[in-house]
Amino acid sequence: MESKISHKRILKIAVPMVVSNATIPILGAVDIGVIGQLGDQSLLAAVGMGAIVITTIYWIFGFLRMGTTGLVAQAAGAGDQGEVYSWLIRGIFIGFSAGLLLILVQVPLFWLAFKLFQALPNVEVQAEMYLAIRIWSAPLSISNFAILGWLIALEKTPQVLFLQIFTNLLNISLNIIFVLYLNWGIAGVAIASLVAEILGALLGLTIAIRFYQSSRYPKVLKIFSFQEWKKLFVTNINILFRSLALEIVIISYVFFGSTIGTVVLAANHILLQFVHISSYALDGFAFSAEALVGTAYGKKSKKLIREAAIKTTLWAFICAVLITLFLFNFSEKLIRLMVTDEGIQNVTIKYSFWMVITPLSGFLSFMLDGIFIGATKTQYMRKAMFQSCTVYVISMCILFPVFENYGLWICINVFFLARAVSLLRYYPALEKF
Prior knowledge:
Blueprint: H1 7-36, H2 41-60, H3 62-77, H4 81-104, H5 106-115, H6 121-134, H7 138-153, H8 157-181, H9 185-213, H10 220-223, H11 226-258, H12 262-298, H13 302-338, H14 342-350, H15 352-356, H16 358-374, H17 378-403, H18 405-430
């Protein structure tokens, strides 16, 4: 593994991840596009609600991807090859166990989720059908977070790109077949995602095993070391609390949007797909920061940590500017292409400006997350998230009652900026070993 933090090395990690991550929310756009062709607002709203609920549940376990990346990168930087593979095994064990637990508690879990939304009964019935199908991929889908984090930490991002392209193309193809040709409706969208997620996770496991077989095996006793599991727990529990707070913000966005009406709920979901595409693309550079900062931290080099942080953030800023310019020029055309309902089109376009500026308001917070994950200074991520959530709540109390959906989108951008400011305050502590 290289020791120099060059721009070439950053792009070698980031570009495959930018492409890979950008394809993830495109699936959501395809779901909308396919269901949108049926011309039924309730089906469109149900897909939006169901997708957000299942994504929120899975994203809660995003700590597994992030924690694995930081810990594996540090082990690689320290030259401890056996521990590199120990972290993979621990991560898969946690992911599969968590997925089984979700299947067992799905009934009360979905009941609670629907209590948080104010949607029409026919929308809830369709969304419940969608979720009841998607949840069965949970054990493998969540385990896949650990596999992806492990590959990113080792700078194997071309393999991650291949894995995501395979999964997403399969999902898109099955979407078209099940919905437009077999007329399975919302169940077809859910089954397509279920099959793609399961087969994609199995492919990821196969890729990891091939790397595992070509290197030094970990010591079995070290895998079950109390100190290492304690380190894993402390790292991940802070990310979990941070993720829960983030998901509360996202849920509140959906909840408050649903109080304005079904059309606004559908429009906000469409705009959220663009936000996801932007954030996933920018996360490609955040992932490069995780790997490079983590490796530098394993080497105990403050110089390399700072160099990795500055250079990766510079590239993220350039990417954010390009995404904003693209959305400014083409968002209206893309919206009209995604959905045929004229009412939803007009409402979506009405609020699109606030979505267009989110790459610029959000890129720094995404990058700082990656930097802190690489150093596994996750306690500061938790503190910063709670602080920025407080700012978000205050701004919501002031702006939403007056400006309604405009206020909601302003608060989302305020939240991104607050996250960046809060994390910047803690950066000096990151360089302390």
